[in-house]
Amino acid sequence: MSKTWLRRMMWSHIPLFLIVFSFLIFIFLQAIVEQNRQNAKASSQAFTAQLLQSVHVSLKTVDHLVIREAAEQQAAVRLFRGSRFPPYLFELRSARAA
After folding, report:
1. Do residues 73 and 89 touch, judged by C-beta distance below 8 A?
2. Predicted structure pTM score
3. Upper half-sphere CA count for residue 88 (Cβ side, 13 Å)
4. DSSP letter, residue 89
5. How many whole angstroms separate alpha carbon 32 and alpha carbon 73?
6. Can you tell me the distance from the alpha carbon of 18 to that of 36, in angstroms, rounded to the nearest whole number?
7. Structural domain count of the chain
8. Are the C-beta atoms of 80 and 90 separated by less than 8 Å?
9. What are φ and ψ of residue 39, in 5° steps?
10. Nearest residue to 70 via CA among 43, 98, 92
11. pLDDT tens-place values along the chain, 98 residues long
């Protein structure tokens, strides 16, 4: 008689065990998905910041090269002298000569 009682108790608790266990697995998987989403977002932000800094440095270098070349060429100096451009663009050449 005790074997029948044990089997009834086991069969009555198995659905409850399966439901609780499935719920815990679901919660665990959702936590992993959320953590991966946060890691991807942080990685994307770091990559974007690095790319932005790289582009900024490249554009700054090109800007300095263009200004230096424009200031060193006499034809450009004669063309722009007396125009709306600020005079500090052409002071680079006189500072390098001194």
Report:
1. no
2. 0.55
3. 1
4. G
5. 62
6. 27
7. 1
8. yes
9. -65, -40
10. 92
11. 567 877 888 888 888 999 999 999 999 999 999 999 999 999 999 999 999 999 999 999 999 998 888 777 776 666 666 666 666 665 655 555 44
